[in-house]
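hi! just following up on the protien thing from before. the input was this:
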Amino acid sequence: MKMLENYSRFSALAAAAALTVVCLALVPLSGWAWLGVLVFGALTAVGVRDMRQTHHAILRNYPILGHIRFFFEKIRPEIRQYFIESDHDEEPFSREDRSIVYQRAKNEEAARPFGTKQKVYEGGYGWMTHSIVPTHLDRHDFRVSIGGPDCKKPYDASLYNISAMSFGSLSAAAIRALNMGAKAGGFAHDTGEGGISKYHREGGGDLIWEIGSGYFGCRTHEGRFDPDKFAEKAADDQVKMIEIKLSQGAKPGHGGMLPAAKITEEIAEARDIPMGKDCISPAGHPEFSTPRELCAFIARLRDLSGGKPVGFKLCIGHRREFMCIVKAMIATGIYPDFIVVDGKEGGTGAAPLEFANHVGMPLTEGLTFVHNTLRGANIRERIRIGASGKLIHAFDVAQAFAMGADWCNSARGFMFSVGCIQAQACHTNHCPTGVTTTDPVRQRALVVKDKAPRVANFHRNTMRALAEMAGAAGLDDPRDFLPHHFMKREADGSMVEASDAWPYMQHNYLIENENTDREDTYLKRWRRASAETFDPPEPYGRALKKRKMAAE
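and the predicted 3d structure came back as:
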């Protein structure tokens, strides 16, 4: 009996083999029996192969039947998304979040019947405080001027723009649709570090040119920065701002490699890289390694671009290192025109699990820290701050303004507007909607003439919702949101005003108290920060201490 139980797992293979023999015996009686021979014979061959292969233990023990497991595992995301998850399950965006984008992109009614589905008495719930005397805002195209005293060509940016997504990560059709939508809606499109492609040019929309550690589009053959190539491309009137990418939220501190097999002629043209050779993006920039050198690089790019706004994007890691940059700004007198704070919840086509889940600071803490550090150094007024990281609702954007942002960017929100269904197949080149694939056949699914207006619609309707929220709070401009306009529910059920959770630092606080006995988290790091180096003032970590002791 026990032996039968042990070998019952091979029953599917035995049945397939037996049916193959039966069908062969029936062939003289009916030609249709050949169909059975082909089907059951193929299953028998699969079963024999399963037993002989060495990669999958399940298939060796359960030939033929084991494939059922792999089939359901393959469609598990779709089963969960369509049949199991609730409207508020986030993986990483809830169905409710995605639905509001789809509706606004299609100019459909986005109202909700029967009241909120949110659990308003549970920890984590947040809300905006409204006014008894609301204002009515007739406009929704709010703008912010980006460009400090050293900038000759400031840019009036929308308060909501397309965040960095590279050509190659996104399809040609998606890039065209996004840029054409940005042109129609009057907002900006960040190129991502993959360079400016011909599809960005076709759209004609305003571009924020992101310069990563690979210097794509402005690099030498050795992968270093090429000032002549940069100056030529930056002179184009379509390029409105230059953004140095220090790190991104989904994989901060991580470089990358695009294998030669994935490099098409169009990607090679946009990135200015050779065909047939792996493309390396270093984790850090080879053009600078100290805070002062970063400031000098900012000044260099501003000069080479003819005075266009130049800034940098980062996900906050070591807080002291950001303070090193701020001290270098003060020491050199060179200030970026803007800083974009990317939360660790930001998206990417592919990232190591540990980096995506556990490296980098979330947007709320990162944005609050950058805003307060600039206030404490008394330089906040001359530097604009952008924010990115899961900002797809007007409520998300309003909260970011309250935490200190001057404008916001969204990547996945605009991806949804061109048809992304969150299949999470971005890294496979099998995107079902043609958004994140280089496969020309799959790209046909994304019809640019249909999707480009949806990009503009999503932006316009989100900005209208933002204007309505500002009006409900009694404000004349969304940038007037402050922390006291928001409340949050604590885990114990109590309410806390956001001004207690996101307090604003007094202007010049860090400068005035640097040499005092006062102690707090900010001052502790400010005193350890140096404009000369990113290295800590004293060795830390066992390995570093051992090396220092050995050297002595």
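The first helix runs from residue 2 to 7.
The radius of gyration is 28 Å.
cheers
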